[in-house]
Amino acid sequence: MKELYRVNYTRAIPWQQRRRRNLRRRTETVSGCDGICGGVHRSLEQEHRTVVTGVAGNRSTSRRRRTPPVTVSGQCDFLDTLPDDVVLYILSKLGSTAESPGDFISVLFTCKRLNVLGVHSLVLSKVSSKTVAVKAKNWSESAHRFLKQCSDAGNVEACYNLGMIRFYCLQNRGSGASLMAKAAINSHAPALYSLAVIQFNGSGGSKTDKDLRAGVALCARAAFLGHIDALRELGHCLQDGYGVRQNITEGRRFLVQANARELATVLSTTPSALISRNWMTWNPLPNLHNGNLAGPGCPLLSDFGCNVPVPEPLPSNRFLSEWFADKALGSGLRLCSNAGCGRPETRQHEFRRCSVCGGVNYCSRACQASDWKIRHKMVCTRAERVVGDDEDNENVDEDGGMFVES
């Protein structure tokens, strides 16, 4: 029995070793799985804690930041790390302070991202008037497309400039008038006044298309917004009873107010060092013809008290002057004689002319008054009329046509 027991005991040793070895392997496997699962669990828990912390601090930074790309010189381009909203805000500020179209376009040529974001409607709607002041010599399809994009974005200056260009230069009357109307709806005073001039003259149509009442209403709206030429035009309409009931006293008040605003504009924009000392001296102008005033007479400030500088024309009027400077108009068509206007006739004898010399013609009484003060008062002399010439001109009135006195 002892021998048998001894034999069985020795045979049982390998079995116990195998059991212990299997138990040891199971323990290592389980501990390894626990380690892996624990590591995964710990990493998930740590990532969850990071996301929760980021959301609690700033919800917009919950997404993982992009690594700044490395440039050729080895430095990081931090512009690519900025969100699009920040870049749009910066471009809007740059566009609203640009001094010329080239300043804004040069920013778009910097990189592809600025080129894409620079034509966003938020940026184009806030560009300055100088940014959309395209010159006639630089006019092209790309310039036309740029103004169209700005007008579609809601920029009122672009709507007005493109409307004037299409109406007078490109002879697209309907589209140009609608763009100016779009700017006028947004209380753009020059657009309101330009539409008033179109209504007074019946521009783009026939003589029967004139609407004097609509022109006076548009002038009144522009004058309420402080437009100087509209104030002057409304004053002449009230004095002459042109499209409105005649009121000479109220008309003279508007004329004085227009010149007072003109003075205030000069004082606010012209440095004191550039104003001569004798600009406030009493200097009556030679408005007398044969001992009598050429008009009803009104002691306006710019004529009798102040020699104000010539106002700078608007970008749209400057474009018209440059556009038609080297282009021939149609047969019998003429430009407005005011150098700062540039409007052309859309049909023969559309504009009114000076009733004294008959050598100049104007699209409005405001242009006539401005040109009289600057230039025409020195050269206006009574000229011999050709028989039948007055009958051909639809805008020479029986009472002497246009007054040459502003």
Largest sheet report: 2 strands, antiparallel
Total strands: the figure is: 4
Low-confidence parts, pLDDT < 50 over ≥5 residues?
A: 1-12, 33-37, 51-66, 277-305, 385-406
* Approximate helicity band: 40-55%
Return the average pLDDT rounded to an integer: 76
Q: What would you note in describing this structure?
A:
- It holds the Pfam family Sel1.
- It comes from Deinandra increscens subsp. villosa.
- The protein has 406 residues and is mainly α.
- It has a two-stranded antiparallel ribbon with strand order 1-2. A two-stranded antiparallel ribbon has the order 3-4.
- The radius of gyration is 39 Å and the shape is elongated.
- The N terminus and C terminus are likely disordered.
Compact description:
53% of the residues lie in helices and 2% in strands. The chain is an all-alpha fold. The model is unreliable at 1-12, 33-37, 51-66, 277-305 and 385-406 (pLDDT under 50).
